[in-house]
Write a structure and sequence with these properties.
- The complex is a heterodimer.
- By secondary structure, chain A is mainly α.
- Helices cover 74% and strands 0% of the residues of chain A.
- In chain A, helix 2 packs across helix 13 (281-316), helix 4 (108-123) crosses helix 7 and helix 7 runs antiparallel to helix 10.
- The radius of gyration of chain A is 24 Å and the shape is globular.
- The model of chain A has no long low-confidence stretch (mean pLDDT 86).
- Chain B is globular, with a radius of gyration of 24 Å.
- The chains are: A mainly alpha, B mainly alpha.
- Chains A and B meet through helix 1, helix 3, helix 4, helix 5 and helix 8 of A and helix 1, helix 3, helix 4, helix 5 and helix 8 of B.
Chain lengths: 317, 313
Amino acid sequence: MSWWSDRRVGPALGSAGVLVLLIIAGMTVYVLREAWPSFSANGLAWFGAGGDANVQLEEIFRSAAPYEYALRAWPLLYGTILSSGGAVVLGLVLSTLTAVFIVEFAPPSVVRVLEPVVRLLAGVPSVIYGLIGVLVLVPFLNNHVISTERKESVFYVIQLTGQSLLVATLLLTIMIVPIMIAIAVDALRSVPASWTEGALALGANRMRVMWTIALRAARPALVAGAVLALARALGEAIMLAMVSGGVIFSPNLLDGSTFLFEPIQPLAAAIVQGAEGITVEPYGQTLFAFAAVIMVSSVGLSITGWAVRRRLRRFTA
Amino acid sequence: MIRTDPSGSWREWPRRDRILLGLCWAAGLTLIAIAALIVLYMLVKGVQFLRPELLWSRPESSIDQSQSGGFLDPILGTLLIVVGALVIAAPLGIATAVWLTEYGKPTWLARMVESGIEVIAGTPSIVLALFGLTFFAQSGLGFLSTTGEGGAVFGRSLLICCTVLSLEALPLIVGATREGLLSTPRHVREASYALGKTRAATIHRVLLPVARPNIATGCALGMGRVAGDTAVVLLLGGGTLQLAQNGSIPGLNYLQGTGSTLTTYVYANSPSGEGGAPEKAYAAAFLLLALVLILNWAVDRIARGNERLGWIR
């Protein structure tokens, strides 16, 4: 019996798959174990609002044994929800229009440019988006867009520096739009030609056909794309840490349009900002609690998105 | 794609459809404009700030960061990490993909592994970084990383970065390899079985060579992902801009030591990090973007070469 026999190769290859599962199990156990003290000390109030999160994190960082864990992480959760939610909504509009454009209306020469462009936007490292954000967009906003009156109007609450919800959301949109476009284009191309041709034969114009037939048929794929993109957006850390400033703040809707210029601090960015203190025990465990929240939600989202796409494939194939 | 339009030219459409068409064009052109702006801006800044001596001088500490020190070490760090992560991820990814498509028994296990790959793909790199930090800080794994006095294990080294980053490249390699294997028609396998080859020999001699362009695509995509990652190296790289050697075995001691990559160098020199040298951040970011563009172009080339092999699929 030679080495290359089926009886050995099958299990040998399968063990690679099992290793993948073990890594996931290990990840879940290690992260949750480190995060546990922070959750158990706060209970469900961890997710609530109350007090100043900046002060609370400072206390946690400074506390000696017995450790202090009191934290109300709502401002961080709120920042995460605002930035990734905003990015997904903007991205849904942009990606749907672009996908329709690529599939139906763009001349072949434009498609030849646009497809590599989408791939390029997906491949640009987040640190470059962050660099452009912090060196170009933030100063531009600070010097030319945010007026002195606007800065004075919220002077007692927060200092507006241009590091804002607006920049974070816009950059995040650009970062997640490629995956949404890829999924939407895939789905639009797999809509049966007989459906669109039937609608055309009934006298609908090309735009109506795309809008009422193709997009409607591809709706589950658009949802799957949005869900996967949301998972990406939740976990984006570096770019958000670079453009979101060092303060934890909840933008207030009552401030009107100034809302957009107020700083946020999403969970993932908070981990990067606090990375240097991660070996300090209670503080590190708090950061692991942030990571645990991100892990659970983004893994859940990506499994959902995957399941939706899988189901789709079964119907179209 | 609808070839002919019985409803006539867009000029005769109702106004709402003409507006939608305009929005579609606007969306597509906006994306092209954004990409062009990013590339041109980085190109201008790169040409402006990239001096040749930056490429072969090491990072130094000085009062005026804009005048001294280059990024030789971050370039070497990026290369080390990309190669290291690929060496770990490629065999694991190819083995997993082959097992999933060619064996896949028992079915429940295959289903679990399949969704497991999806879970790893969906896990943000910052979470992977924190996992690596606790996992490799165990005292039994101290030989992999930098250690403090009294046997404290810090769990930070380039080798650990490679290991954790290989998880990021893994789903891309598995996905591309599976796609290649799945698109290989059944008659290719059956011809091999008819000649008396075992399943293992068929994989080794027939299927893997056929899927080679796909595997290469997956590896190139994975390398791009690894080269562009900041969070893992920031947390696990040890935070030294220079490559620090650790241990006594030449060659291996770089992997056991700490260091930086182009991404963390950009981060450290941006206003968000401590060093305030945006010129050098721009120059390094330009190099990084060039690397990503080259990898992108390689993926394109491989994919096109793939179509020329159409006779076999």
